[in-house]
Specification:
About 14% of the residues have low confidence. The chain has 2 domains: 102 residues, 2-Layer Sandwich (Nucleotidyltransferase, domain 5); 119 residues, no CATH class. A hairpin with a 2-residue loop joins strand 2 and strand 3. It has 242 residues and is of the alpha/beta class. The strands form 2 sheets. It has a 5-stranded mixed β-sheet with strand order 3-2-1-4-5. The protein has a two-stranded antiparallel ribbon with strand order 6-7. The chain has 8 helices and 7 strands. The radius of gyration is 22 Å and the shape is globular. Helix 1 crosses helix 2, helix 5 runs antiparallel to helix 6 and helix 7 crosses helix 8. The two termini are 38 Å apart.
């Protein structure tokens, strides 16, 4: 019989609930490994997507061969409302995850593809670099001091060089995987999607879009001296998903 363990994830802690008992451990590799070793064989871990703070837990659970399910937060909150559980604390959230799992028996996450994990990290870092480039270019538009403008220009040049290096690493990862290469080629058949746009969509397997326009959302990123236009499903800055 499966023993579901609810885990409410935050940046610093994991709040755990099972067998009507609640406890808390640090969200660190050492604490999580120690906790995983002490779990019964029938344990099934259940957490919510928490903005990436659950990534360490998921990685270590897979390394320890422990099944773990990652639930959609909105579905869990709807379930809690339907049960009249309106109070919200970390302890209560972990308990609701157990109740949800016992009612719906969610499928555990599949084992990750190491190559796709590496690609996901590169895609995330490239997005961070592009954001920094945009921020620096926006800053430059507000400056008049030539020395400051020169400093910003050097920063942008350095960031662009890093972005180019990341893109080269992304291409290398894809070329070593026939499966990823095939997926990229399929995505490129959609009008307006280039290699980088297709690569951006690979790690998370994103579907749908934020603002529909021919099935996808078009975002233009204007950078000083150059402009990229790509297809993405990420919501524009300042917007929230409805």
């Amino acid at each position: 019989m499966k023993i579901y363990i609810g885990i409410d994830v935050s940046k610093l802690h994991l709040d755990l609930h099972h067998h009507q008992q609640s406890t808390q451990i640090p969200n660190t590799a050492k604490a999580i490994r120690r906790w995983l070793k002490a779990l019964p064989q029938a344990a099934v871990l259940v957490c919510e997507a928490s903005g990436g703070y659950e990534s360490l837990l998921v990685t270590l659970a897979h390394a320890a061969q422990r099944p773990i399910a990652r639930l959609n937060a909105r579905q869990v909150r709807d379930f809690a409302k339907a049960k009249g559980r309106l109070a919200k604390t970390d302890k209560i959230d972990a308990q609701i995850l157990v109740d949800f799992a016992e009612a719906f028996h969610p499928e555990p996450l599949g084992l990750p593809d190491p190559l796709q994990q590496a690609l996901a990290a590169l895609v995330k870092h490239r997005a961070h670099l592009l954001m920094q480039i945009t921020q620096n270019n926006n800053l430059a538009e507000t400056l008049a001091d030539k020395k400051l403008l020169a400093l910003v220009a050097r920063t942008v040049a350095f960031l662009r060089k890093q972005a180019d290096q990341i893109e080269a690493l992304m291409a290398d990862k894809i070329s070593r995987s026939p499966n990823l290469s095939t997926k990229v080629q399929r995505l490129r058949q959609v009008q307006g999607i280039g290699t980088l746009s297709a690569t951006d969509r690979l790690p998370s397997g994103r579907r749908g879009s934020w603002r529909r326009r021919g099935g996808f959302c078009r975002r233009r990123e204007r950078l000083r001296g150059w402009r990229t236009e790509k297809i993405t499903s990420s919501p524009p800055p300042g917007r929230r998903r409805g």
